[in-house]
Amino acid sequence: MRVRNSLVFGVLAGAAVFALSACDNQDPIAAGTTNTTPATSTTGVSKTAAPTKTTKTTPAASPAADKDGCPVTASTLQKASGLDKGWKINSGTIKCDQNWATAGLTAPTPEQQGDGVMVFQHRDGKWTKKGEGSSLLCSEWGMPASSDLCTNA
Predict the structure, then answer these.
(1) Which of 49, 80, 99, 132 has its CA 20 to 30 A from that of 87?
(2) Shortest CA distance to 102 belongs to which of 117, 87, 90, 114?
């Protein structure tokens, strides 16, 4: 009885292996699946295309400041600001137009935080701090009235 059960098991196992191996030869498109392995010929050589030549790319250059110094980065204005330790130029508040820039500040503590901005001018290739304020009148700073950085009233 033991030999008969072993023989039946062996026949069933062989039939299952044979049936499953036949499934691997189905057309993947007809079966609704995709084959991600490269096809090989009977000689074992891959039928996939030769590897393409790779080229080294360089990262895109950052946009250069135009003749009036805009755009300007927070780190550039931070250097020109002369701020005490702990105070920082808030990069999200920088406005730049016609050789002038304004930037809000981030204070070291919430108690020190205000609503004023710093005013900078670009001249002779560098930024310099001109002052601070919360209401910027163009005439007080010498800023062009056509800029969006100050008011005329």
Answers:
(1) 99
(2) 117
